[in-house]
Structures
1.
Amino acid sequence: MPKITVYPDNDSLIRGAADFIVELAVQAIVARGRFTLALSGGNTPRPLYARLATPAYRDRIDWAKVHIFFGDERCVPPDDPRSNYRMVREALLDQVPLSAGKVHRLRGEDPPEQAAADYARVLQKTFGGDAAAGGPPPEGFDLILLGMGDNGHTASLFPGLAVVTETRRWVMAQYVEVAGMWRVTLTPVVLNAARQVAFLVSGGGKAEVLHRVLEGPYQPVALPSQIIKPSHGELRWLLDATAAAKLRRES
Ligand code: 6PG
């Protein structure tokens, strides 16, 4: 069962998510000497990244031991306003003492298939295993942060795409019709190998789909967020009250 936390408003959601990330970072660094974090794009997490960059949060994390990755990327250059990397760089990466070698971006400017294959190799270097052999990496991310679109997509697992039910490859490129662009995304193979996965969802525009994802029938090809079920890790939904408005249960 996922753990669902509902915060009264967006500001307390962002604060709660920032506290959660700091806590996990500290624990991971004590336990394993590093914190591997995959970030989501979109609008919802921007204030979270900005919050992590404020002294109250920034100073509690040993950034030299943090490794930043991306859950998905739009196939645009890194300075394009649509780039997830650009958003994260502006809100967070430029504001904290991270070394460039610890920020692993998905190269949206490269041919999509090549960017996917290269990123699988980056993951292999960090987590071990053999991306080409298929199956999950031997070690998962400490935390993968995800968002959810109002059609139930997460990362770039969009409804109806083959990547939603992928069981071998770690990273895939897909043309996303509704977005009118190519995207590169971690697949469920890697997403579900994480120690922790946390969705951050805010706003009444997501309430109906959130109810269907969490409380409706299991149909992941139509509602890709449902495919996220870490095999050995924990799944959390961090919500504000307007996003949670149509849920029957809370925990
Ligand atoms: C992206 C994302 C995507 C995002 C959702 C929600 O690149 O767009 O990683 O999966 O998390 O679309 O986005 P919003 O927070 O903007 O609603």
2.
Amino acid sequence: MDNMDPIPITLYNTLSRSKERFEPLTPGKVGMYTCGPTVYNFAHIGNLRTFLFEDLLARTLRLNGYEVTHVMNITDVGHQTSDGDAGEDKMAIAAKREQLDPYAIARKYEGFFVNDMQRLGNDIPTVLPRATEHVGEMIALNQTLEAKGFTYATPEGLYFDTSRDPDYGKLAHLRLDEQKQGVRDDLNIDPDKRHPADFVLWFLNKPNHIMKWESPWGVGYPGWHIECSAMAMKYLGETFDIHCGGMDHIPVHNTNEIAQSECATGHPFVHYWMHAAFLNVRGKMSKSKGNFVTVQTLIDSGYDPLAYRYLCLQAHYRSELEMAWVWENDDPTTGRGRAESLDNAGRGLTYLYERLARTTEEPLSSETAFDSAYREVLASLNDDLNVPRAVATLHTYESPRLWNAFDPVLGLDLARRAKLPEDEAPPAPVFALVEERQAARKNRDFARSDELRAAIAALGWEVADTPQGPTVKRHPVGRL
Ligand code: AMP
Ligand code: ZN
């Protein structure tokens, strides 16, 4: 390949409100934490838009040769719902609704969540830690904060004292004197709470809460924010590369994660904070009213879940996406509905599969033309994950080989659905790694050879050694 210079990656960092050049803490490796689902019900397609953005980010980093450790928490400790049912927690409501104990509810919806991720073509994150299995780590983190003087206790719980943190609110550019109370933690106003922005690290005195643990402060359960800090630091270290979530998490949840983590360790918590814009479904979705669209709703309505994926690929992750969803007979209990944007995406995707399957003459037949087109698409992905531009470029070239080379990121299952040849020649960057690995093996440098095998796998290819030399096939992992 003539031009093997790596293409720099830039990411929009919510901390600085600007695009920054991505430099990982450890060369070649990326630690990434993403706020996961609360497993008291199905994930709706809005949640999944955020999880899809995070999947595209991890896949793009892998395509660039990084080894990515992706951690996504499973929130299986109940946290309170909004105003209507303050005092009850989400897991308790679901337990009552379904006559199951809260752990059974959590495991059931965790299973559905993993299944929905797969049906949408998302890779399953490297680690999916459950909050209930990390309460010890959360207590330890709270004890560190207490020992350093960042907490105070009331009969209702142990609080983080925001007045002790001069940096509080830096992510959201908040000023403490303007800060409103966070909605997710303590809806029952505690008269002993000192500042509206202070938040609960450990809840006490909540008789309706089913899941409870012993702690130095008394029997209770952890705050929601401490969950993410404790699990992120356990799996990725006190400082790591990337933390993602939906934009709704900027002012409270992620702000509080930063405050408690940095006050506990004295180090920066995360280098790059990335937030996805919302999917807005007209005809407001509400989990508590049972009026929301899930992957199963899409399937029951006759949609291919990948049509939803394809629709999301056409909007930048920092732009809101509108969907005018209409329930059959205007009745959400039918569990079926339609949206014009999804109809169009579904047709577009089918047409793409057909066109690619029919193309007999590869338009990018010369290596130079292929390499230059490959770099053009990669440059879009590396430019703060500009997937819509990458997809538009792929459409202009109409090259099965180029589409195939980027399917490890796009996840459209082209090899199967568009019947693109599995034994297709690898793109030039993979080919170069295979050559380099052959040279390493010749020099009996097996450690290097193994590293290169991993780098090839990270690009979505699998190398096998035969007496005739190496063969390279598309890697089966991560496909539907
Ligand atoms: P939750 O289960 O409510 O904690 O949400 C899981 C993830 O989905 C979080 O990152 C939220 O920010 C995100 N999220 C919630 N609603 C939407 C939406 N309508 N569109 C996109 N992301 C969302
Ligand atoms: Zn979180």
